[in-house]
Amino acid sequence: MKKYNFYAGPSILSEYTINNTAEAIKNFAGTGLSILEISHRSKEFSAVIEEAMAMVKELLDVPEGYHVLFLGGGASLQFCMVPYNLLNTKAAYLDTGTWANKAIKEAKLFGDVEVVASSKEANYTFIPKDYTIPTDADYFHITTNNTIYGTELRKELDSPIPMVADMSSDIFSRPVDVSKYDIIYAGAQKNLAPAGVTLVIVKESALGHVNRVIPTMLDYKTHVSKGSMFNTPPVLPIYSALQTLKWYKEMGGVKKLEELDKAKAAALYDAIDSSRIFVGTAKAEDRSIMNVCFVMKPEYAELEKEFNDFASTKGIVGIKGHRSVGGFRASLYNAMSMEGVQVLIDAMKEFEKNH
Ligand SMILES: *Cc1c(COP(=O)(O)O)cnc(C)c1O
Description:
Layout: E1 4-5, H1 15-26, H2 43-59, E2 66-71, H3 74-86, E3 90-95, H4 98-107, E4 112-118, E5 140-143, E6 145-146, E7 151-152, E8 163-166, E9 181-187, E10 198-203, H5 220-225, H6 235-251, H7 253-273, E11 278-280, E12 291-296, H8 304-313, E13 316-317, E14 328-331, H9 338-353
Parallel strand pairs: 1-13, 3-4, 3-5, 5-8, 8-9
Antiparallel strand pairs: 2-10, 6-7, 9-10, 11-12, 12-14
Helix pairs in contact: 1-6, 2-6, 3-4, 6-7, 7-9
Bound molecules: pyridoxal-5'-phosphate (PLP).
């Protein structure tokens, strides 16, 4: 049976990415060797990482003065590396969910953290709008897509100070004005590659302004100066990331991907909004087009497991919601097709008719 993968992360990748990665595991770039066993300093792999960096720059229209890095440690290590490298006295953070909270916790190890606003009291069902960003902070940190709660900031904020953004779960789903950011980072396993690599876009002039000593591996300057080759980078995920980036280009780039993503999300939200038994959890104006969170209305709450089982008979996989929201979460990353979304919608409608 064909499977429709709605997992939140690691998550669906394009067939193009999977097939080319599988091929390279057997025979990489005609070398007769597997990508798993080749030197990261071979000319074949150097070409891969350089092309991947160039494609990130092309797809996101990255301006001069920025570097693209492929690092280990996940987005979670960036929660620490960002303040290590940028926080002198104070940083401002917007608290929009579990991941934002984890970033705040790490930043507090390095200096003052002003949480400008939080929607925690409302179980993060919306993104706060009324707050002032302190102009004396070193940076303002945001989480553009809240993977667990299904809320998203889909446009650049007006910030008087440079921003830092965790774009782990919505990078490449829209054009971004990179010039507004000192650092953009994204764990690759949501919308780019298998787990193991983190994409970082860093503005060179933002570095070198803190007084503390930074351990070599945690210093962005180390990786900038060595082109992400200070130590062995995650070779296989970088190869896969390049395949995804090529596929994104073939699909028409991030503007086109945004159009497709918006259409998929609109179809699913329409089905939820017109349903007798399902209801969305996030406030409509802040709804994510990447992670669609919904639950059973209270009077149907006991049908949750039954729907999950029913959906799996249709090949639908990974729609169980995160435990902090419950219910369901359908992740509609770039590689998810409208066909897959329609299968889910049809399953919801059929289930509703039978209850
Ligand atoms: C998944 C996720 C993370 C954590 O990423 P790791 O690579 O597992 O550290 C951080 N932020 C957001 C928004 C995420 O979706």
